[in-house]
Protein backbone atom coordinates (compact mmCIF):
# COMPACT_ATOMS: atom_id res chain seq x y z
CA UNK A 1 0.00 0.00 0.00
CA UNK A 2 1.29 3.44 -0.84
CA UNK A 3 0.90 6.68 1.10
CA UNK A 4 0.67 8.76 -2.07
CA UNK A 5 -1.97 11.45 -2.21
CA UNK A 6 -3.29 12.01 -5.69
CA UNK A 7 -4.02 15.55 -6.82
CA UNK A 8 -5.82 16.03 -10.13
CA UNK A 9 -5.56 19.06 -12.37
CA UNK A 10 -7.22 20.21 -15.55
CA UNK A 11 -5.70 21.71 -18.64
CA UNK A 12 -9.11 23.31 -19.18
CA UNK A 13 -9.63 24.78 -22.64
CA UNK A 14 -12.19 27.13 -24.12
CA UNK A 15 -11.86 28.88 -27.47
CA UNK A 16 -8.28 27.60 -27.83
CA UNK A 17 -7.12 29.08 -24.51
CA UNK A 18 -6.01 27.28 -21.33
CA UNK A 19 -7.22 28.37 -17.91
CA UNK A 20 -4.77 29.43 -15.19
CA UNK A 21 -6.00 30.01 -11.63
CA UNK A 22 -4.18 32.27 -9.13
CA UNK A 23 -3.97 30.86 -5.60
CA UNK A 24 -5.28 32.94 -2.72
CA UNK A 25 -4.42 30.36 -0.05
CA UNK A 26 -2.43 29.00 1.66
CA UNK A 27 -0.13 31.95 2.25
CA UNK A 28 2.98 30.22 0.84
CA UNK A 29 1.21 29.66 -2.50
CA UNK A 30 -0.83 32.86 -2.69
CA UNK A 31 -0.26 34.94 -5.81
CA UNK A 32 1.10 32.05 -7.88
CA UNK A 33 -0.74 30.35 -10.72
CA UNK A 34 -1.79 26.72 -11.12
CA UNK A 35 -3.96 24.40 -13.12
CA UNK A 36 -7.36 24.13 -11.39
CA UNK A 37 -8.14 20.92 -9.54
CA UNK A 38 -7.62 19.32 -6.15
CA UNK A 39 -7.24 16.20 -4.07
CA UNK A 40 -8.95 12.92 -4.80
CA UNK A 41 -11.10 11.92 -1.82
CA UNK A 42 -11.23 8.33 -0.50
CA UNK A 43 -13.48 6.16 -2.67
CA UNK A 44 -13.48 8.70 -5.51
CA UNK A 45 -12.14 8.03 -9.00
CA UNK A 46 -9.64 10.67 -10.19
CA UNK A 47 -11.94 11.72 -13.04
CA UNK A 48 -14.88 12.17 -10.65
CA UNK A 49 -12.70 14.23 -8.33
CA UNK A 50 -11.59 16.54 -11.11
CA UNK A 51 -15.14 17.19 -12.33
CA UNK A 52 -16.18 17.87 -8.70
CA UNK A 53 -13.22 20.19 -8.07
CA UNK A 54 -13.89 22.24 -11.23
CA UNK A 55 -17.51 22.63 -10.16
CA UNK A 56 -16.54 23.67 -6.60
CA UNK A 57 -13.62 25.95 -7.52
CA UNK A 58 -14.99 27.57 -10.67
CA UNK A 59 -18.70 26.79 -10.93
CA UNK A 60 -17.76 25.17 -14.24
CA UNK A 61 -18.93 22.01 -15.92
CA UNK A 62 -16.21 20.38 -17.96
CA UNK A 63 -15.84 17.38 -20.22
CA UNK A 64 -12.65 15.45 -19.54
CA UNK A 65 -11.04 14.50 -22.83
CA UNK A 66 -8.03 12.37 -21.90
CA UNK A 67 -5.29 12.07 -19.36
CA UNK A 68 -2.07 13.81 -20.26
CA UNK A 69 0.79 11.32 -19.93
CA UNK A 70 2.96 11.85 -16.89
CA UNK A 71 2.79 12.31 -13.16
CA UNK A 72 4.50 15.12 -11.29
CA UNK A 73 5.61 15.29 -7.65
CA UNK A 74 4.22 18.23 -5.70
CA UNK A 75 5.89 20.31 -3.01
CA UNK A 76 4.58 18.13 -0.18
CA UNK A 77 5.99 14.63 0.38
CA UNK A 78 3.78 11.90 -1.06
CA UNK A 79 1.66 14.25 -3.18
CA UNK A 80 1.58 13.68 -6.94
CA UNK A 81 -0.22 15.53 -9.73
CA UNK A 82 -2.01 13.98 -12.70
CA UNK A 83 -3.52 16.21 -15.37
CA UNK A 84 -6.39 15.74 -17.81
CA UNK A 85 -7.14 17.74 -20.92
CA UNK A 86 -10.67 19.09 -20.58
CA UNK A 87 -13.03 21.45 -22.30
CA UNK A 88 -15.47 23.87 -20.79
CA UNK A 89 -19.06 22.84 -21.57
CA UNK A 90 -21.27 24.71 -19.10
CA UNK A 91 -20.84 28.31 -20.18
CA UNK A 92 -18.48 30.70 -21.90
CA UNK A 93 -15.03 31.51 -20.55
CA UNK A 94 -16.28 34.84 -19.17
CA UNK A 95 -18.81 33.00 -16.98
CA UNK A 96 -16.19 31.03 -15.02
CA UNK A 97 -15.36 32.60 -11.65
CA UNK A 98 -12.86 31.81 -8.87
CA UNK A 99 -15.00 30.46 -6.03
CA UNK A 100 -12.56 28.59 -3.74
CA UNK A 101 -8.84 29.06 -3.00
CA UNK A 102 -8.31 31.38 -5.99
CA UNK A 103 -8.68 35.13 -6.49
CA UNK A 104 -8.15 35.46 -10.25
CA UNK A 105 -8.40 33.47 -13.47
CA UNK A 106 -6.77 33.97 -16.86
CA UNK A 107 -7.50 32.27 -20.15
CA UNK A 108 -4.11 32.01 -21.85
CA UNK A 109 -3.51 31.66 -25.57
CA UNK A 110 -0.69 29.26 -26.51
CA UNK A 111 1.79 32.15 -26.87
CA UNK A 112 0.79 33.53 -23.43
CA UNK A 113 1.21 30.34 -21.37
CA UNK A 114 4.39 31.54 -19.71
CA UNK A 115 3.13 35.06 -18.98
CA UNK A 116 2.01 34.01 -15.49
CA UNK A 117 4.10 32.91 -12.51
CA UNK A 118 3.19 29.21 -12.37
CA UNK A 119 3.86 27.23 -9.20
CA UNK A 120 7.08 25.28 -9.71
CA UNK A 121 5.34 21.92 -9.50
CA UNK A 122 2.79 22.92 -12.14
CA UNK A 123 5.36 24.04 -14.72
CA UNK A 124 6.21 20.59 -16.10
CA UNK A 125 2.50 19.69 -16.19
CA UNK A 126 1.69 22.91 -18.08
CA UNK A 127 4.49 22.18 -20.56
CA UNK A 128 3.16 18.62 -21.06
CA UNK A 129 -0.39 19.97 -21.50
CA UNK A 130 0.80 22.50 -24.07
CA UNK A 131 2.66 19.80 -26.05
CA UNK A 132 -0.39 17.56 -25.87
CA UNK A 133 -2.70 20.34 -27.07
CA UNK A 134 -0.40 21.18 -29.99
CA UNK A 135 -0.51 17.55 -31.08
CA UNK A 136 -4.29 17.19 -30.88
From TrEMBL:
Domain Nudix hydrolase per the UniProt entry, residue ranges: 3-132
Molecular-function annotations in GO: 8-oxo-7,8-dihydrodeoxyguanosine triphosphate pyrophosphatase activity; 8-oxo-7,8-dihydroguanosine triphosphate pyrophosphatase activity; 8-oxo-dGDP phosphatase activity; 8-oxo-GDP phosphatase activity; metal ion binding
Cofactor(s) for this UniProt protein: Mg(2+)
Keyword annotations: DNA damage, DNA repair, DNA replication, Hydrolase, Magnesium, Metal-binding, Mutator protein
Record-linked Pfam families: NUDIX
InterPro entries for this protein: MutT-like, Nudix_hydrolase, NUDIX_hydrolase-like_dom_sf, NUDIX_hydrolase_CS, NUDIX_hydrolase_dom
EC number: 3.6.1.55
Enzymatic reactions: 8-oxo-dGTP + H2O = 8-oxo-dGMP + diphosphate + H(+)
Family statement: Belongs to the Nudix hydrolase family.
Protein name: 8-oxo-dGTP diphosphatase
Amino acid sequence: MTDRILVVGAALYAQGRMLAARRSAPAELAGRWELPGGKVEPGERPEQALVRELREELGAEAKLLERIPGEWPLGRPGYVLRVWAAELISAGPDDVRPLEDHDALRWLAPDELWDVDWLEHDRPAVAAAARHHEGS
